[in-house]
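User: Just a sanity check before I run the rest of the batch. Below are the structure tokens for the first item. I only need the designed sequence back.
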């Protein structure tokens, strides 16, 4: 049976969802919803689906089996919970939500309704990411010693001014770390394993009229004993490719965007030469380094296809709600450490109370 998708929220990311759905065998875009009716109509006309300005009406549509939530980050919970209660499977754009409580509400609603829940992290579906994961699982790095994530991007002031929700605690949930770098946080923790403790600093240095950080630095200690660094910024002109580095006592590897640029192991294997050959044919562009619209939809398509297969096979998707929650927890620990100046240990017992959320930009300029 062909599965129908419905998109909730018809902003910038909705077009990427629509293009991805079109590439998934056995799936089609059936409907879209936005509180602004004209926005839904625009997507519907471009991609050939039914437009709704009433969410309950779209959730009652029998042709919609799966919804993708593409609203601002801090407005994911309400439509996701409503969709679960309506019996629809749920895919939520990153982050799953902006607090642990709100993440847990989505997870709980989907579990109670018996529907599939997946959090969008398309970078995990790239071939390069899977090569790194396989090398970790095969212990090619030996003892992991260092794991780093660098996201040194650029966003203009116009980017923040162009969307009232951007750069706010209420709807963005944070700045360069929660919005832009969360993909790399997810990848790093997926590859290195759980984080045990965090020490961090954040700052607002290059932008105005926003409440959140445009620079974040965190020192991590992983449960495996390795140390690591997260550097995230939207204040590094002109913006460079995001980078993941893994090191151990038997090997090292570096990935820039979707390309592996370093692949060195003490014990060589036949496939290493093929990997290095492909390294020489790097094709990744700038990704979202300076332009948030300059991303591809192929990772989304692979993840949507996994969700469709999970529904048909009665299994969990590769990235479920708990996986989506994990990166939010690490980021909340970073924000707590930056605000208190203390080392924060994970797992967090609850959402930290952040003064910055209460006082806005004045609380970040210290």
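Assistant: Here's the designed sequence for the first item:
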């Amino acid at each position: 049976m062909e599965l129908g998708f419905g998109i909730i929220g018809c902003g910038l990311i909705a077009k990427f969802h629509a293009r991805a759905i079109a590439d998934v065998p056995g799936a089609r875009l059936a409907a879209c919803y936005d509180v602004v009716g004209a926005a839904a109509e625009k997507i519907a006309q471009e991609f050939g689906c039914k437009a709704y300005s009433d969410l309950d009406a779209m959730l009652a549509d029998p042709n919609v089996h799966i919804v993708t939530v593409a609203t601002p980050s801090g407005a994911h919970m309400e439509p996701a919970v409503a969709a679960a209660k309506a019996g629809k499977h749920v895919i939520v754009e990153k982050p799953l939500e902006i607090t642990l409580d709100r993440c847990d509400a989505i997870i709980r609603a989907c579990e109670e309704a018996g529907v599939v829940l997946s959090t969008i992290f398309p970078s995990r579906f790239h071939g390069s990411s899977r090569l790194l994961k396989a090398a970790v699982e095969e212990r090619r790095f030996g003892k992991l010693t260092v794991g780093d994530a660098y996201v040194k991007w650029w966003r203009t002031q116009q980017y923040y001014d162009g969307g009232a929700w951007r750069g706010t605690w209420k709807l963005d949930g944070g700045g360069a770390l929660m919005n832009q770098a969360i993909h790399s946080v997810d990848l790093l923790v997926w590859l290195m394993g759980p984080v045990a403790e965090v020490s961090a600093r954040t700052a607002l240095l290059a932008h105005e009229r926003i409440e959140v950080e445009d620079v974040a630095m965190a020192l991590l200690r992983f449960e495996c004993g390795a140390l690591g660094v997260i550097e995230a910024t939207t204040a590094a002109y002109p913006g460079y490719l995001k980078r993941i580095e893994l090191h151990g006592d038997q090997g090292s590897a570096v990935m820039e965007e979707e390309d592996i640029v370093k692949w060195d192991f003490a014990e060589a294997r036949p496939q290493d030469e093929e990997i290095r050959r492909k390294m020489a044919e790097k094709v990744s562009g700038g990704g979202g380094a300076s332009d948030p619209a300059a991303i591809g939809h192929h990772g989304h398509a692979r993840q949507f296809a996994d969700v469709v297969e999970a529904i048909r096979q009665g299994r969990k998707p590769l990235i479920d709600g708990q996986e989506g929650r994990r990166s939010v927890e690490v980021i909340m620990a970073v924000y707590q450490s930056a605000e208190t100046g203390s080392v924060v240990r994970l797992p967090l017992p609850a959402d930290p109370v952040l003064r910055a959320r209460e006082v806005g930009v004045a609380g970040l300029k210290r």
